[in-house]
């Protein structure tokens, strides 16, 4: 099996977030070419310590892509620590993120491109709680498989875009492995500590980008924790090699399509995520078969 290496390391600054005081946001993918990012459009690390008061946020639309939300620190209510949500916006959806009480949250949110032929799919929502996530625990490591597969475990999450999303917690000196399709683009984002991949050391706040390969088959990455405990998240996906345009909360084939998306939203033609039919809201539980599924 071919060994995957890290070819570039990036680190972006923290900025004030759109929710006002107490919201720090980092645009993890900024400055990286689409060649390496495909199929990832945006990746925000959001850290919130909001004082409460006047409502911030509110209802807003999305269309033409999927949002992936991994909750690293929740509030024990509507944001559960360790939970994961994938919302297929597809042909259009509205959702609400409004906060008016004191909140401390840490969330990773990714915008994932849909294959061109599935850009206008019916909206869908999938959720999985931490206790239902396939995981491996040892004295030296914990591996949580949110999408795709890792070390013999498969996530039940269904994907339009084939995606691997794995959360790693390693104790000092631990070594773990991850298999990936060789043609996937991907990266790791380090949240705490530092991890070695080959001769590259990726530290807290940095993103390590895997080398690009075109061929089919499997590749493997080796991760080694250094003298401190480390926490990092791996994202890898099948690139679409297809053009798109993005404007605000919409992704489409052309600016004419973007204009139509805005028009439909203004006319109230997008359903709210809370009003989706039950067959388009999928909650995964322990009795579900932990087998990966890819919608082709």
Describe the structure.
The protein has a single domain, classed as Jelly Rolls, CATH 2.60.120. Helix content is 5%, strand content 50%. The protein has two helices and 28 strands. The strands form seven sheets. It has an eight-stranded mixed β-sheet, with no helix packed on it. The longest helix is centred in the C-terminal third of the chain and has 12 residues, at 255-266. Residues 287-296 have low confidence and may be disordered.
Provide the number of structural domains. 1
Number of helical stretches of at least 4 residues:
2
| Element-by-element helix/strand order | EEEEHEEEEEEEEEEEEEEEEEEEEEEHEE
Helical percent range? under 10%
Rg (C-alpha, Å): 19 Å
Shape: globular
- Look at the helices and sheets and give the structural class: mainly beta
In the CATH scheme, the class would be Mainly Beta
CATH topology: Jelly Rolls
Q: Would you report the number of β strands? A: 28
The major sheet is characterized as: 8 strands, mixed
Terminal Cα separation, in Å?
A: 26 Å
- The stretches of 5 or more residues where confidence is low (pLDDT under 50) are 287-296
Mean pLDDT over the full residue set:
91
In terms of quaternary structure, the protein is: single chain
Q: What's the CATH H-level homologous superfamily?
A: Jelly Rolls
Widest sheet: strand ordering? 3-4-5-10-7-8-11-27
CATH architecture: Sandwich
- Strand residue percentage: over 45%
């Amino acid at each position: 099996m071919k060994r995957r290496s890290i070819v570039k390391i990036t680190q972006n600054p923290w900025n004030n977030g759109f929710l006002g005081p107490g919201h720090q946001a980092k645009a993890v993918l900024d400055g990286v070419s689409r060649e390496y990012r495909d199929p990832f459009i945006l990746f925000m690390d959001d850290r919130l310590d909001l004082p409460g008061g006047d409502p911030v946020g509110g209802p807003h639309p999305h269309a033409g892509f999927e949002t992936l939300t991994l909750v690293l620190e929740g509030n024990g209510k509507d944001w559960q620590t360790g939970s994961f949500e994938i919302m297929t916006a597809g042909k259009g959806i509205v959702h609400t993120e409004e906060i008016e009480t004191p909140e401390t949250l840490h969330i990773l949110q990714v915008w994932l491109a849909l294959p061109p032929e599935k850009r206008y799919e019916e909206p869908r929502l999938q959720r999985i709680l931490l206790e239902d996530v396939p995981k491996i625990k040892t004295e030296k490591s914990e591996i949580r498989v949110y999408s795709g597969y890792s070390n013999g475990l498969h996530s039940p999450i269904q994907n339009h875009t084939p995606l691997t999303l794995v959360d790693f917690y390693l104790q000092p000196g631990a070594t773990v492995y991850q298999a990936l399709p060789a043609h996937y683009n991907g990266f790791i984002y380090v949240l705490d500590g530092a991890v070695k991949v080959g001769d590259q050391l990726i530290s807290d706040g940095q993103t390590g980008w895997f080398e690009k390969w075109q061929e089919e088959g499997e590749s493997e990455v080796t991760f080694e924790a250094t003298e401190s405990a480390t926490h990092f998240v791996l994202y890898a996906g099948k690139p679409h090699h297809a053009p798109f345009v993005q404007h605000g909360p919409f992704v489409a084939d052309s600016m004419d399509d973007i204009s139509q998306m805005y028009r439909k939203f203004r006319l109230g033609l997008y359903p709210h995520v809370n009003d989706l039919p039950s067959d388009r809201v999928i909650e995964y539980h322990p009795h579900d078969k932990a087998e990966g599924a890819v919608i082709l």
